[in-house]
Description:
Strand order of the largest sheet: 1-4
Number of strands: 4
Amino acid sequence: MLPTHSAKQGELKELRELLIRLGRRLRLRDGLLTASRTLWWAVLAAALVQLLARLTPLERAWLWSLAPFGLWAVLVLGHALLRPMPLLRVARRCDAELSLKERLSTAVALQPTFQPLVVSAVEPSILPVSHSSLLHLQLHDTLSTTRAIQPRQAFPLRVAGRSLLLAAVLCAATIALAVIPNPMDAVLQERVAVRQAAQETARKIEELRETIASEDTELDDEQRAELLRQLAELARKLRENPGQREQALADLSALEETLRRQLEPGAEARQAALEQLAANLAKLAGQQQTDEQESLNQAAQALADLAAQMGEMDAAQREALATTLQQMASQAAATDPALAQALSALAEATRQGDTDAAAQAAQNGAQALRQAESDLAMQRTLARALNSLQNGRQTVARAGQGQGQGQATTGQSGQGQQGQNQGQQGQGQRAGGPGGTQARTLPPGNASGRAQDPNRPNKPVDVGELPSVYVPRERGEGSGEEEFIPGQEGSEGQTETRQQEGPLPGAETAVLVPYSQVYYEYLETAAQAMEREYIPASLKDYVREYFSRLEP
């Protein structure tokens, strides 16, 4: 009696499920065996990464060492899960390993229903089943044999012992390479310090750039835009720097050299000459004296006032004014030829009484003053930018150097510095007056002094023991005045007095000022000059050493 179609279909479905189950077991065994055979390749790659990290600086070496394991796991899992395994292959492997005399492979080969089926999580559709009696008997025998197979017992898990032993040896070597101190760690730490220093320098350059862009000065718009572009480009390069000290220093030095070529050597002398000229013009025009910055802005108005006042002067007054203006023109000829020419023209017009020519000369002089102010403003801006670049270059050059020594001496030197600051504050309070309380150190970045030497601790200083020093008064102050000198009582009980003038009229009179007060006044002046003007770093070191040796 032939089985019904539904019975055959049920037997085929059961056999298919059993083969799928056996196929999954074979996948697991094959995957574990492949993993054990290939693990040493991943460990070897990790060991090579650690070895490379000892020959060249490699950031995050531990992360690169884990990368081969991740790649190995992906390949092994992909091969085990995605490798095609048709039911016929599963059947043949089961027949071969379990000595089933090709029962499973014959059943699968004779049943067309099994041909498209593979071992996977997807349930394939069941095709119509043949009604042949012989096929049914063979299928029934195969199904009975397959039901008795226990996958775990039939296919135990196996590993490659020698490969695992090799992987264990390589793993121990990798761990040893990772644990033993690496000489490249110092190089990596230095790179990190250089990168942080470059980032900090870029931030300061951006702050300088924003300050220059927001300032309402007499800078030429084209010059300002070019300087801002150069600073922005440098800040971008420093932010993108991966920690290469040479590249950061080269970028800073390149812009520093470009700006240095635009710097005029006599800018400070020109500034002082213009301020003196502006003060003299304001005095001639009868204007009230102002500070240095405002006097430059009022110099143009002083020229216009002088040209307007010329009509009210007589010949002698015009001649005196013309002579004074001509002297000013001679003094300005060395620094500002255009201004000197305008002053000379104004002097000639004043001498001749030509009001129209005087007004035109005053206008030309005002234009020359504005141009000079623009040039000087650019020089001051360039000096600030150069100082910032110079400080940044020194910061990058010193980044990562001497960190251990600095940390070892921080506690001792910090106590000495604190004691010195307290002593200086006490000196300033005792000395009194305007000096000695504003500046304590020169511009930051290169501080030096005895307070940072742990082998030479600070000693308490008594200001009363410090000597007073000679400081000349301003020229003309106290000179040429009558002095009252009390005498000693004579034999007749009378007091002898005598009045006399100073030894040399106009000479500077000596005064004595406490040393601490003078020191901090001069220190403050030097610090302001070093911040305002561009001074090469080598010369700044001389100034710092000079004041460090004179420190009370």
